[in-house]
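Protocol step 4 of 5: obtain the predicted structure for the target chain.
Materials: sequence only (see below). No template structures provided, no constraints applied. The aim of this step is simply to have a reference model before the mutagenesis design in step 5. Sequence pasted as it appears in the construct record:
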Amino acid sequence: MRRVLTLICAISAVLVCNGQTMREDIAANPNLAGGIYTAYMVTEQPVVKAPSGYKPFYISHYGRHGSRYQTAQEKYDLPAQMLEQAYKDGRLTELGCDLMRRVRVIADDAHLRAGDLSPRGEREQRGIAERMAKLYPQVFSGRNGNHITTFASPSVRSVVSMAAFTERLKEIYPKLSITRYASAHDIHFTRPEQNMNTFYKTARKMAKDYQREQTRDKEFICRIFNDYDYAVKLICKAYESDSTYAFMGNMHDLAMIVQNFDNLPELHHVFTEPERYQMWHLFNIRRYLTYGPSLDFGDIRALDGKLLLRDIIERADNIISDRSTDEVATLRFGHDSAVIPLLAVLHAEGCDGRISFAEIERLPEVWCDSRITSMSVNVQFIFYRNKQGDVLVRVLHSERDIRIPVKTECYPFYKWNDLRTYCLAQCKPEAR
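Step 4 output (structure tokens):
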């Protein structure tokens, strides 16, 4: 029965990636409209047996922090205060009154917690660590060493994610020795964003202008307010804008972020199915232009992914060449802004789609943020070795095998020499 369930999960995953569209996925599960706010989803992992004679001995990992609050307090406070003002003025519909009460609960919970890790985020990290420990006992049992080196960006949510992850490993394997770093010294691979900033403002403005042009929000506003003209004036004043699109975007953000918590009221009912898809699509465009492999900005953004990939290669080289080392894992904790370009530089399947802004409407066909970078998204390189010293590697995306365009006769395993050569080629400035 277990093998049957595993097969069903594997087939389902293929269907989701290759058969269904994001429109269908979001209709079936509204939380998938969350993009980067999508909470980490755990599916049963197929058991993959290594080729004869090979055993895991080292893991190199990069993981985004776990589920979190919105990073800007005003995303909570502004809509709560605005809806309450409209309520005092008698300008809310019945749905609007219900929305006001729900948003106030959400805003009160978030008070002074902007950007913080949520309890669910901590559980996500502990769960990933536990599955890693149990799937690869040979790595952590002490046979090859018992030391783990971990790095986190100085962001509090990344540091707490690192603490939760390593605490769970230590609970399962008490003899592990762990060194933790969280400083600007390692920012070039924990939060590599130096090249993103080159065109970030330009890309973000392009995306926001497009979002402003494409957002159809009058029907949405009229379901919440009983006086459209009043609502337009109130919203434009609150958001210091001549357009109302930011309010609908703010409400979409709140509707999506609540999935990262345990007991907050849902807001899905405020949106129609077409509106929910529309908002996901427009925010997917923004994420693609600012962080993704777009033809317009992707080349400069890829440089940051190359910094992280080079760190993964160099540390693995040191571990493999030094048989006296007792390090069995290198764990890094950071942000989606590193995971997205890393997967693009690797040309991981489904993560490297390249189109120009001129054809941006077909972006859902080639690049979908919800499938690429949820909360706690992680990339793991699992290293295996036989008695002859030959090394194989598996590459996992959120604990699932993902294809890299490197020739192999034993997928999901790649010869390290082949994968290393490929990765080094991708790290060159001219490689795309």
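Step 4 remarks: The two ends are 44 Å apart (CA to CA). The mean pLDDT is 92.
Proceed to step 5.
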